[in-house]
Amino acid sequence: MKKIVIAGAGAYFFAPAIFEDLFVRFRMEAEYWMVDADLDMAELSARGAQALARAFGVQARFYYTTQLQKAAFSADAVILCSDFLDEEAWKKDFESLDAVGLGKQVRLRGGLGGAMQTMRAVGFVCDLADQMREECPCAPLILCSSGYGGLPLSRACEAAQRFCVTFPNVSEIAPEPVLIQMS
User: Fold this and answer.
1) How many Å apart are CA 15 and CA 9, to the nearest integer?
2) Strand order from edge to edge, sheet including 60-65
3) pLDDT tens digits, residue range 12-55?
4) First to last CA, the chain
5) What's the DSSP call for residue 103?
6) CA–CA separation, 43 vs 39, rounded Å?
7) In this structure, are residues 8 and 36 in contact, taking their beta carbons and an 8 Å threshold?
């Protein structure tokens, strides 16, 4: 049975669409690991996904955790649903730059603040991609972002590709061709 990890499973704007694709559209039988920084959200996501899978007759097992490293071990695919908007870090960026007269530069996607946010987000993605290269080298890393929360997809994809050497044929994971689009 395939193992699919959904990191950031509590992201309410991504999880429903991903669950619809997995259980309604593709009806993918797999072992699903729901990972979120908030254990209650991870559990809620797992229970919701389990109910949807059951309703559509999809055979699947569900687990939930806060430990992405544990879940990603031997995964067949990792879906990262997170916008990396860390309000505390953003405030620190603002205060630090404002102290030297550059507070107006703290924006999510531009200026010095955007660069600081990018370094935090891309650092996380690179660490995950590096772990995946060691523990599940054939698993694709699928990045989902709304574009508003600080995950610069083009930079994150470039960084992840530098760490991930090989990608499997998508048909090994999904029963039909999948169009991957970034907008």
Assistant:
1) 6
2) 60-65, 30-35, 2-7, 77-81, 141-144
3) 777 788 899 999 999 999 999 999 989 999 999 999 999 999 99
4) 32
5) G
6) 6
7) yes
